[in-house]
Amino acid sequence: MELIVLQSSNILMPALIGGGTALLLGIVIVLVFRFFSVEEDPMVEELNSVLPGVNCGGCGYSGCLGYASALASGEDSNTSKCTAGGLETAEAVALTLGTAPQEYIPQVAYVFCQGSGEYTTKRYEYTGTPNCASATGLFAGPNSCTYGCLGFGDCYDVCEFDAIWIDDGLAHVNSENCTACGKCVIACPKDLISLIPKHELATVNSCRNHWPAAATRKNCKIGCIACRLCIKACPVDAIHMEDNLAVIDQEICIHCGECVKVCPTNSISEGLLKGMAEEKALRAAAKAEKEAEEAAAKAEKEAS
Amino acid sequence: MRFKWPAKLQGVHPRQNKNTANSAIEKIRGFDTVSIPLDMQFGPGCESLVKKGDHVEIGQKIGEPLGAWCVPIHASVSGTVKSVKKEILSDGTPVEYVNIDSDGKDSVSAEVKPPQVHDRADFLAAVRASGLVGLGGAAFPTHVKMNPPPGKTIDTLIINAAECEPYITSDHRICLEYPQQIIKGITLTCHYLNIPTAVIALEDNKRDVVTVLQREIDKVKGTLDYPEQGISITVLPTQYPTGAEKVLIKLVNERIVPEGGLPADVGVLVQNVGTIRYVGEYFETGMPLVSKIITLDGSAVQKPGNYEVPIGAIIEDVVEKSGGCRTEIAKVIMGGPMMGVSIDDLSRSILKANNAILMLDEKDATLPTEIACIQCGRCTFACPMLLMPTTLDKAARAQDISKLNDYHVMNCIECGCCTYVCPSKRYLLQNIRIGKTLVKQASKN
Hints:
Order of helices and strands of chain A: HHHHEHHEEHEEHHEEHEH
CATH class of the domain at 2-20 and 113-285 in chain B: Alpha Beta
Distance between the termini of chain A: 123 Å
Oligomer: heterodimer
Number of helices of chain A: 11
Strand order of the largest sheet of chain A: 1-4
Distance between the termini of chain B: 50 Å
Radius of gyration of chain A: 30 Å
Structural class of chain B: alpha/beta
Structural class of chain A: mainly alpha
Number of strands of chain B: 18
Largest sheet of chain B: 6 strands, mixed
Number of helices of chain B: 14
Strand content of chain B: 15-25%
Strand content of chain A: 5-15%
Helix content of chain A: 40-55%
Radius of gyration of chain B: 22 Å
Shape of chain B: globular
């Protein structure tokens, strides 16, 4: 019996000391929390939970929390800056803030080049570091068109939404996955990617080359040769020339498709890309159709 | 003559391959056509003064400078302007090229006459009018270099004849064949810029130059122009990259150029031996910079040697006139194998800053494949600027700008020692270069 009492008194002191210290520190913590607490706007937390949380930086802030606190503090009043979330997020943000939703114009990244290996050649064999930034430093890259896409995939590396794929030396944007965060726009050393309004029939001159027509013909089979036919065909004057390159003003364009019909090199394209598999199937179908047409024409010619 | 052998040597020892050290400079003339780019220097380029169909003569100004940093460009053959059209330079920027069809007469323009110089301003204006840029490879305008920002005095002129790049021997031949012009260039520069000391620095593998230059120095000793504290010759160890400006200053003067600073910050002016020789020649003849002495070498060249060719001559023609190719060319490098730029097309022109054309065959041109870093640290020991290439490489791959700054990426002189010694054949310099571009972009924004 005596032994047990001794033992319990042995454990009592340490337990008391430990428990007492814990209690004391707990009181200190409560006091500090009471008197030194920082007033936090509950709105920030609420807004942050509404935002998608991918921290892509498409809004121009460091991340979702940055945008949320800017909105909550009234520093920024635009509720439709989240490109990754789109219309739904814009509406949810406006609802949380209790303001009227602003007009949301969805955008999409677009590669202003169609010069894949099918249409361009290589001037030299590049054996250096396989990225566009390095290759650009050596005679503007191995591509025959010095303005064209090199296809080493600097844009692919920065895309967090699996929206870019590289095929045959050319980058493509999957318009369904793209959130217009703009990372690829910065990453491209050739300045070939821009954000355009997301319209199903977006009509774009997919070329950024400023060489005169003769040089363009030599360099790329699908480049803009500055023939001005599209300017003449455009019913709303949305197209103008910039240093040997036709530029379509996306805000004026009415997507009538007249310029697409007259473009002799198919430099002007219509519609956004969806996905790699779909695109490949579409292209194969178009090729088969073209071949069938040619075969039919040939047969007709032979018959006559 | 004195020897400078530092206790600890940073750098590498690539195989020297100075096969052409004994081939005298040969003049190649009679080019049918030349193509002169209107931007051959560090900084902005020129505006064309001629148009299609104009007749030009050697030494006639064809490019008007577009700024205080820019120097004029002169016709290097006489003949008719065939066209003025845009093409790209090695860094990818489009620039106008003046293509001239030679008439074969090589008639010299009436504009060419020796300049009359009285003071410092006259001298700098004359140097600018000659179209002179640094001929060692960087093409930095010489008149800007000779005119340091106010408040900085220069006490030493270092003549860089180190020529540490493998294969190249053009500076070596210049020292042997034009010692008188070199010394004249030095005395003129020292006289007008008020520099008391001149040092000619060269590598141990060019000892034969020392006696030749010493003889010329002795001839001018005691004349009015002779620098106060004399012209001396310093022999440095044969090691790459002793010829790099900052490394050279450290070896010769034991002064360290601060990060982002210029040699003028430590009171030094460094001129390539070819540049200073040209100063001597220009004040004798008045002929603007229209030709360039280059080394043509490499495993694919039939007859390696040193040649004087007009600026703007097409590389293909130069090779053909020198004796053609031995085997099929796999790679052509403008400059030395360590720091040169490979070119995409044999129809490129000889530029002011070219000092060598290397033509390599398939065997020499094949690049080894990159494998994983084994953390051996050889690159850190080799770096002449005492940087840590592996760390910089990792930071550049991760695009970590603050880390790149912390490890002083801007101090990198792009000599390529790290990539040369790497047993894993990592693309170190290539990535560090991207890192430097990133830092420059970030500081701009």
